[in-house]
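Homework help board

Subject: predicted structure for assignment chain

Our instructor gave us this sequence and asked us to write out the predicted structure in token form, then describe one feature. I got the tokens but I'm not sure how to describe them. Can anyone check?
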Amino acid sequence: MRDFTRFLGHSPDTATPEELRAFQLDMKERGVGAPTFNSRLTVLSFFFAATCPRPEMKRHMRYQRAAKKIPVVLSAEEVARIIEGCVAKFPPSRRWLY
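My token output:
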């Protein structure tokens, strides 16, 4: 709530949908992460639902999805190097690998 109030420069109960959208764009441009972004919108959602009933403001809130990380996949050469390293260091492990 504090961030939104600072962004507006006036009381949040008089905010317009355009100001809410500008706040969301500002957070996006500053690189605010999805968890923080969504947390701030949740606070504003509660504010505009319970404290200052203005349901039209909730329609202008767009939550972000957290980016999914792509798993690291080893190449065939990297797997071969790992296996060779295991066999060289632990000769009995040859039985387990083949």
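Reply (TA_rk): Your tokens look well-formed. For the description, you could write something like this. Helices lie at 2-8, 17-29, 34-51, 55-58, 76-89, 94-97. That's the kind of observation they're looking for.
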